[in-house]
## 1
Amino acid sequence: MSGDESKSWLRGRVEKTLVKALTRAYSTVQVNPEKFLLQLRTAYRMPISGYHGVYSLEIGELDAVADEIIRSGMKLAALEGAGFGLGGLITIFPDLGILSAITMRTIQKLSLVYGFQFSTDDEIAELWIAAASAAGVDISRELLEKEVVNKFVPRVIQRIATRASAEVVEKWAGRLIPLTSSAMGAALNYWFVRAWGQRAKSHFRQRHIQLRRQAHEAALVAQVPLILPAQTI
């Protein structure tokens, strides 16, 4: 098998693995919003009683918590990558399954930090739009408006897997070298969560700021006194 054929075969396998892993994450890997709210209040000392409370905090406070969550995901992914990396390329597929779960949980936590829950179909769809953004895939809002979430999410997952598989095959070639595969696996997983986490953070941050601006403008409009035209006698 030539180098190009080998890379094409590997990319196909990686893409299928990512589709399965992300689909599993969609149905089973869920951050519990209530437990995470408690964690935000205790571990991160955010003075909120519910997720609506994040809109009363300084944006810098949310950014600091988001960065800490990304760093935590990076460290966990690096440890996992170092362990699976010992097996070289043969362990890339189970590694991708766990890495996908770590990444999606990180994205879910970032969503909650900026005040976006995922309990309704629209919110779930928005979460996957953020995941696509983190993967560098632009999902048109028109696509969401035309489809129900159960059809929309699988299509987004396929788009993410297609894009990410090329990235994985290109950057993870170093795992072919046994002596360096463990360190390489740790570094690549660390980089993967960092890159996806930062892009997801940017997505949620922009939406959060937009909603703040809209709420502020609505409040200003509500305070404008109603001026009736002068009546003639």
Note: Helices lie at 3-28, 33-42, 59-85, 92-113, 121-134, 141-146, 149-171, 178-223.
## 2
Amino acid sequence: MTINPNIFKAYDIRGIYPNEIDEEVVYRIGRALVVFTGAKSVVVGRDCRLSSEALFETLTKGILKEGADVIDIGICSSPVFYFSVGEYDLHDAGIMITASHNPKQYNGLKLVRGNALPIGGVSGMDKIKELVLKNTWEDKPSGNTVETEMLNPYIEKILSFSGLKTSDVLGTSDVRKFRIAADAGNGMGGLSLKKMLSVLELDFKTTLIPLYFEPDGNFPNHEANPTKQENLRDLREAILKEKADFGVALDGDGDRIAVTDENGEIVRGDFLTAIFAEMMLKKYPGAKILYDVRCSNIVTETIKKAGGTPEMTPVGHAPIKNIMAKGGAVFGGELSNHFYFRDFYFAESPDLCLLLLLKYLTPPYVGRGKGRLKMSEAVRDFKKYFHSGEINFEVRDSVQGGLRPLASGKEKIIKKIEEKYSAGAEKVIRIDGLRLDFSDWWFNVRLSNTEPLLRLNLEAKTEELMMQKREELSELITS
């Protein structure tokens, strides 16, 4: 069979089922992972996508055929998967069957080592790809399958890490009064969120306003991608109707959390990064905090003010997690609402993020008076600059007239932008695409690692300057 090599991405393996990724492909990937890592046991989880069960069956056959055991943790969120791999020394590797926030026709695989760190573009994905395409295997005695429940131990872990124990919550009337609207998007995050709040002994019906908590691979209500504003429409309506204190939305595999305030206004991912950075620096004074190239300058300023050391990173969970592991950072955040904690295997947990937000907003933690802080008040001081948000461009090939399958056309555009702007820049940063910093504004333009797009982010000290530069750069890219 012919396998599309483009399914092997910088962060994971992903494609349309069954045209690009099917049972035969994942069978080979299962074998390749065992060969590459030398694993004796592999944790396997899966989301609720319609094709996930069929892919699970052949993936595990490949793993067993290479002589490794399969630790089957059932359907779960990616955070539960990361916990299942990272918490126990007996496990050598893991595979999560998911296409994250992509539409229902997609599926894919996240590959990790025994420490839950990802296998990505710079950490072994090329070798996995090579083994899959070569398709030469040596049969070994078959491994065994062990089914294991991991949701309850996961909940215990994040409750312990957050410092928000059951007794603390029950003794704090302000926490019990929180009304939280939550949209799970019919993905996997609703399972752990509902379980967590029940363990906290909060009244599920009156404390949480749940939207689309039942896992459904058809994603019948909206795409499970909280970074698109249209997917937050129902959540924002619920916040206003139910007079919720704030809202949260999760993506398909439950590793990304978006937040809205009590007015339904979206709280940007870099603002949340600043909040969590403050909290981590209370626990680990002077520590290193990571943030990606798209984040506002307010993040750097907040980290320094809190006594931490800021470090800019490329975009994406694979590079950020590996940078954290090698460099000793305690936390990392992305504009795209991914948040990584060293004490949680360098991985994401929206459930943990929600607990930390409850703690941040509740007196006396915030130290801003006796009353409970509103979400809009929590981020007010961060609105110092004017950010464009991420703008995506489909760059077309002037000869072929269609989307260019390779990056060369987009790279030429980045080079053209650099030639025009770099002379006046105070900083030139090339860790992910191109970021140029000026005295009163900055921009980053980069190739998407998951889609055929060129992405632009910029920020300025005034709204007028931001809009001017946004129009200027957009015109240069589209022309």
Note: Confidence is low (pLDDT under 50) at residues 169-175, 397-407.
